[in-house]
Amino acid sequence: ECLKEMKEDGMEPNMDEYNKLIQSLCLKALDWRTAENLLKEMEDGGLCLKGTTRSLIAAVKELEMDELSKASQEA
Predict the structure, then answer these.
(1) What is the pTM of this model?
(2) How far apart are CA 27 and CA 23, in angstroms?
(3) d(C-alpha 65, C-alpha 36), whole Å
(4) C-alpha to C-alpha distances, 2 to 44, 55, 60, 62, nearest whole angstrom
C-alpha cells in the first residue's frame, strides 16, 4: 500500500525502502510470497537487494515449508 501511494505521487521507492519493507514482511508477517514479489519488482526496476535480506526471504519460505511438512505428517 505504501509503495503504491509513493508511485501514485510520482516517487520511486529506493533500495532502502524496499529492503525495510521486505524485512518487515518476512519478520512480522512471515509473508515471503509478497516479499518475493517485491524482490522481483525491485530487480525489474534495476535495484539490488542486500544479501542478508534475500537470505531472510529464503529462510522464512523454508520455515513455512517445514511447518507444512510437519503438519501433513501429523495428519
Answers:
(1) 0.79
(2) 6
(3) 15
(4) 19, 23, 22, 27
